From TrEMBL:
It comes from the Bacteria. Pfam families: Glyco_hydro_114. Transmembrane segments: none annotated. This is Endo alpha-1,4 polygalactosaminidase. It comes from Kineosporia mesophila. Coiled coil: none annotated. Keywords: Signal. The keyword Iron does not apply. Residues 1-25 form the signal peptide. SUPFAM superfamilies: (Trans)glycosidases (SSF51445). The lineage of its organism: Bacteria, Bacillati, Actinomycetota, Actinomycetes, Kineosporiales. Residues 42-261 form the Glycoside-hydrolase family GH114 TIM-barrel domain.
């Protein structure tokens, strides 16, 4: 799952949504399409000026769109950010939207301490979560972003209390909102979903992490053709990135990044493209 070091809290407010019919959602042909094999720069750790050759930038929703570049707005759609702890836990209504353990305490992502898992198991909870996240989508649109990158679709695979159907129903709500704003929406995670399911939800393209490592890249090819891009990480070694470049670097953007995706200029920064 892609991550960023957020520097500012999101403004949370919004309008409640109703559950969309997955069979009628579908990927939209009226939203801005991901540029084919456009060099991608993922900047979730902090904004910086992209080089001239960059055609696509993926930035956190607290950042700004880049004029003249296809700008994707990252939101953590299926779990929370660590800086939002008080927002999600200090009121009964929002705390009720967090998945709880047997003692009634919210589950945290073991890999990202302070990030709680959103509970998508009921229609009412999904509507309440969507009410919050619609404002993030609307704010991204107001800033000039062309697309949404909703992270952690796959929480049901990591927390067995959750169900795939609940996460897909929330994703469908978010896709409908994005399309209503004239924005595309990406699939993030859950590579095992069928092409039929992806299209039913309404995903337009995919943001893919480490598929070379997990042997999932062909699944995205089958579902999206060339409408996806791939991030491989330095923690998995250069061999995976080099193999990905050899297999498909001539038709999609395949980038090699440091795990925390820090801004250019920091010592841990690493960026390469095929």
């Amino acid at each position: 799952m892609l991550r960023r070091l957020a520097t500012a809290a999101l403004v949370i407010a919004g309008i409640a949504g109703t559950l969309a019919n997955p069979a009628s959602a579908g990927a939209s042909s009226t939203v801005p399409a991901l540029p084919p094999n456009g060099r991608v720069d993922v900047q979730l750790g902090g904004d910086y000026a992209p080089v001239r050759s960059v055609k696509v930038v993926d930035r956190d929703s607290t950042g700004e769109a880049v004029e003249g570049v296809y700008s994707i707005c990252y939101v953590n759609a299926f779990q929370t950010q660590d800086y939002q702890k008080d927002f999600w836990t200090k009121t009964r209504a929002r705390r009720a939207l967090l998945l709880k353990d047997a003692t009634g305490e919210p589950y945290e992502d073991p890999n990202w301490p302070g990030e709680f898992i959103l509970d998508t198991r009921t229609r009412n909870k999904r509507a309440a979560i969507a009410k919050i996240e619609y404002t993030w989508i609307d704010a991204c649109k107001a800033k000039g972003f062309q697309a949404i990158d909703p992270d952690n679709l796959d929480t049901w695979t990591r927390f067995p209390q959750l169900e795939r159907a609940g996460n897909l129903a929330l994703a469908t709500l978010l896709a409908k909102r994005a399309h209503g704003q004239g924005m595309a929406i990406a699939q993030k995670n859950a590579g095992e979903l069928s092409r039929k399911t992806r299209l039913a939800v309404g995903f337009d393209f995919a943001v893919v992490e480490s598929c070379q490592v997990y042997d999932e890249c062909g699944l995205y090819d089958q579902a999206y053709g060339d409408s996806w891009f791939e991030i491989e990480y330095t923690t998995n070694g250069a061999g995976n990135w080099q193999a990905a470049c050899a297999e498909r670097g001539d038709r999609i953007s395949v980038i090699y990044r440091d795990q925390n995706i820090v801004p250019r200029g920091e010592s841990a920064y690493h960026f390469q493209e095929c």
